[in-house]
Design goal:
There is one protein chain. This protein is α+β, with helices and mostly antiparallel strands. About 35% of the residues lie in helices and about 15% in strands. A 5-stranded antiparallel sheet has the order 3-4-5-6-7. Strands 2-1-8 form a 3-stranded antiparallel sheet. It is elongated and about 105 Å long.
Amino acid sequence: MTNKVDAFVQEWKERIRAGLEYRKKYSTRSKWEDFRKYYRGQWAPGILPVNKTFSYGRMLVPKVYFRAPRVTITAAHPDLVWHAKVVEAIDNLLIRELGLKRVLKRAVMHTYLCGVGPVKLGYDSEFGYIPEQAVLDDGTTVTQVSTEEEAKVEYRVGVKPGMPWAIAVRPEDVVVPWGSSEPDDLPWVAHYILRPLEDVKQDQKYRHTEQLQGTRTPAMEEDVRPRFRPRSERDKDVVFAELWEVQDLKRGRRYVFCEDQVLMDVKDELQIEGPSWEFLMFNPDPEYFWAIPDVWILEPSQLELNEVRTQISRHRAIALLKFLYKRGALKQEELEKLLSGEVGPAVAVDDEVLVNAVKELQPHVPPDLYREVLTIMNDMRETLGFSINQLGEFSPYHGKTATETM
């Protein structure tokens, strides 16, 4: 039996490893952290940026997600009008209770920066729904309560006992099979989860947790597997366990692996018409699952724009008014008069030819640099396919229709 379990775990490790390699090779994974730094405004020293990555993101996100999401239910038969009203009221209540607005907003941001915005759907428990452990008559739930003390092992606000939920997941925490092309043909989906080891051992959904040490998943390469979160790096006293949760659509089951142990192997009740995942993509790749981020397309122009803007800044510093004077032609007190801010000072010059004594020097900023900035910004706008009106820019032309104005 032990040999079968080991072979089972190793088989899935190989599949996940292949999925990680697939993402590394055919996605922009190596640039995701750079894209996030662009959005945050974290540039190299000495760079004067024009952060279009941030401004386009600020413009795009509100236009895509629903600012006040709600649904409208239309009755298919006149006798069902009031049934539709009740369903509509319940759905809109759930949308508000579950914080779906924040989930959609974060998913859009992931899509803009990484190409894919994964949204995980579930019910009752964040780490696996088991009907036998679901919500009880008194409103409590076994899945979220510790086995050893009166404490919770799940504390995400949006995940409530006996309620559906949706969570925006970081793209680097999701793995799909090698060669996958679109979300509708996935045979399985793996989710990387980092949990405190104490919570894992006290979670009643899991088994075989006694031997867990909280180490990283064995045999996973450092350059392809997800890294610890910043919060986890600071929690030196907290031991974390790395879990891989797999939804196997071929067999209709859910597995959880950790340190060569199978913590969960149950029938997945949430596999209704596919995996309990939604993947938001603005620019699907024609061959590969991992879509194309908008920032990936904007990056060359963004870096070029920063370079030109930095050059302009340096030219402006050099182009400040300066004076060349002949050594000995001006005494120190006369030189101070020349450089003072007073109006009409009389400066004495000890030289026969005045023009040789003092000469004004003021280089100019090449005007082509300013035209280059406008050209690059126009290229970025055209690349994203947005009009001036959509970006909210001022237009000197008149005669716009009411629709264009809106």
